[in-house]
């Protein structure tokens, strides 16, 4: 075996004094070794990106705050009001009642009461005014479709909106609340499907009698006058404005 020959050292090249091996030249590090160069370049790009991101997203940076706000906006989308609006009235007769039959107040139809109820009402008006009081009828005969609308308004308000204070439901809550008041509905009395009103056997009236000598005498006096006219109030506690023909068969009121 022959001895391994020593590397040829170019004239003027730097030499490792311990191994007598020349240091790589610049050309060897760059042109002749492109892989190392690319690795170094990639490291520089990654480190630069990390440095830039760290600078921009530092807690006291405006960009940091802006980007965090954007992220929060993305993560919490605006939720619409999940309560469905009231269904529109499609029945022509019910729509006429809803629009007050030409007036501002809800429609009052005494012409379609039964003949017995109409006579009782006329007598009651005469008796009340003769006694020095006033009587204002707020509802009489109601078409079934209109009665269903009243029930829908009551359900929407009592079950879904009265205690709903979500900001996105505020507009609908205001609208239905106004309609509830417009129809003079009572929270204690849910309108039923078939009532004394849809059968023409009842009317609602606000009656004011002269101030009595004793506080409890007014209720007794009002019902006494009603009985004189073949009328009665079936549920004074929950529906004090409801007067029904006394001879009518017992059924649902409101
Ligand atoms: Zn009623």
Description:
The protein is α+β, with helices and mostly antiparallel strands and 254 residues long. The protein has two domains: 26-75; 92-245, 2-Layer Sandwich (Muramoyl-pentapeptide Carboxypeptidase, domain 2). The protein is 42% helix and 7% strand. It has a four-stranded antiparallel sheet with strand order 1-2-4-3. The radius of gyration is 44 Å and the shape is rod-shaped. The relative contact order is 0.10. The structure holds zinc ion (ZN).
In the predicted model, the low-confidence regions spanning at least 5 consecutive residues are: none
Shape: rod-shaped
The name of the CATH architecture of the largest domain is: 2-Layer Sandwich
CATH topology call of the largest domain: Muramoyl-pentapeptide Carboxypeptidase, domain 2
Helicity range of the residues? 40-55%
Q: What proportion strand?
A: 5-15%
- List all distinct small molecules, including ions and cofactors, that are bound in this structure: zinc ion
């Amino acid at each position: 075996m022959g001895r391994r020959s020593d590397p040829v050292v170019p004239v003027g090249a730097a030499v490792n004094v311990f191994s007598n091996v020349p240091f790589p030249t610049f050309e060897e590090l760059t042109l002749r070794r492109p892989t190392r160069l690319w690795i170094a370049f990639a490291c520089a790009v990654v480190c630069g990106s990390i440095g830039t991101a760290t600078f921009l997203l530092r807690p006291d940076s405006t960009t940091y705050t802006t980007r965090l706000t954007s992220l929060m906006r993305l993560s919490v989308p605006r939720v619409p009001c999940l309560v469905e609006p009231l269904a529109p009235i499609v029945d022509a007769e019910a729509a006429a009642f809803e629009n007050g039959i030409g007036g501002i107040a809800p429609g009052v139809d005494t012409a379609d009461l039964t003949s017995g109820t109409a006579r009782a009402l006329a007598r009651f008006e005469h008796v009340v005014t003769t006694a020095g009081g006033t009587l204002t009828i707020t509802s009489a005969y109601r078409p079934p479709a209109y009665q269903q609308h009243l029930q829908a308004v009551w359900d929407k308000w009592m079950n879904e909106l009265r205690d709903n204070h979500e900001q996105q439901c505020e507009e609908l809550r205001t609208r239905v609340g106004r309609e509830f008041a417009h129809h003079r509905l009572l929270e204690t009395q849910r309108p039923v499907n078939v009532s004394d009103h849809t059968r023409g056997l009842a009317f609602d009236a606000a009656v004011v009698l002269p101030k009595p000598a004793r506080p409890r005498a007014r209720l007794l006096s009002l019902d006494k006058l009603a009985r004189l006219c073949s009328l009665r109030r079936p549920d004074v506690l929950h529906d004090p404005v409801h007067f029904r023909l006394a001879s009518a068969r017992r059924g649902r009121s409101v």
